[in-house]
Amino acid sequence: MGLELYLDLLSQPCRALYIFARSNGIPFEFKQVELMKGQHRTEEFQKVNVLMKVPALRDGSFTLAESIAILLYLARKFKTPDHWYPSDLQKRARVDEYLSWQHVNIRGKGSKLFLMKVLLPLLTGQPLPPEKLESVTEELNVVLKQFEEKFLQDKPFIAGSEVSLADLVALVELMQPVGAGYDLFEERPKLAEWRRRVEEAVGKQLFQEAHEGILNVKNLTADKIAPELLEHFKHQLLKQASQN
After folding, report:
1. Of residues 98, 112, 109, the one with CA closest to residue 194
2. What are 14-51's pLDDT values in tens digits?
3. Hey, CA dihedral for 217, 219, 222, 224, is it positive or negative?
4. Dihedral sign, CA of 201, 152, 193, 215?
């Protein structure tokens, strides 16, 4: 049994893994797990990841969860070019620093805007009140400013002159709000240039292919979501919205 990656490309970490594996010529079998259909909750998938989350990896009898752990596993197993996860102590520390920071910041705030702007209105039939949307957008804007000033600065990439796992993980997360209709690159020339460089480094066509679903997510309708997930999603999102 070869390497299997269990992915849904609507998920940011899944896109990072897909792009990383494809751009580095890593052979794998793409096992699609459609989150909206509840396929991550099946008994079969729980044998791969009892946490019921994607992405997940199976390599023979070995299974692995958590996207950063999987990215590092692939980088080490397939000895990908050094720039992805540099051997230089300080460059690697820069990658680790970003990957440690991003979870509750870029990922947290970007995902929240996407869920509030796309999924909540879909489930409730009502758009998020403008003041709440403004608040969620401002939370994202704060961390975007931190990202530019602390992590990107005036460098071509986060770790210096070459693309790394940090850049790939960052960019797929920032595409989630773009899919929701918030073009955060429009008035941020430094970010827009960095995006262009990252896309060129991994391959523009591959990047676009991986993001086709999320950039057309507005075509999603409630009838495409598994009935048993509808109420669960709705409850969770309304709870988040009320906390703003």
Report:
1. 98
2. 999 999 999 999 999 999 999 988 899 899 999 999 99
3. negative
4. positive
| C-alpha–C-alpha distance, residues 28 and 19, integer Å | 12
| Structure-token match 């970490």, residue found | 13
Query: What is residue 42's DSSP assignment?
Result: S
Q: For residues 85 and 163, what is the distance between their CA atoms, to the nearest angstrom?
A: 9
User: Burial level of 55, CB count in 10 A (0-12/13-18/19+)?
Assistant: buried
Pick from 24, 19, 1, 134: which is nearest to 67 by CA? 19
- Residues sharing a CB contact under 8 Å with residue 84, sequence separation 6 or more, in sequence order: 20, 24, 75, 163, 164, 165
Contact 4, 28 (CB under 8 A): yes
> How far is the C-alpha of 189 from the C-alpha of 144, rounded, in Å?
13
Residues in the chain: 244
Token pair belonging to 115? 């869920």
> Residue 128 burial (CB < 10 Å; 0-12/13-18/19+)?
buried
CA nearest to 240, candidates 141, 101, 124: 124
Structure tokens at 189: 């020339």
Q: Environment class of residue 25 by beta-carbon count within 10 Å: exposed (0-12), middle (13-18) or buried (19+)?
A: exposed
For residue 128, the surrounding DSSP H or E stretch is none
Residue 241: the pLDDT is 65
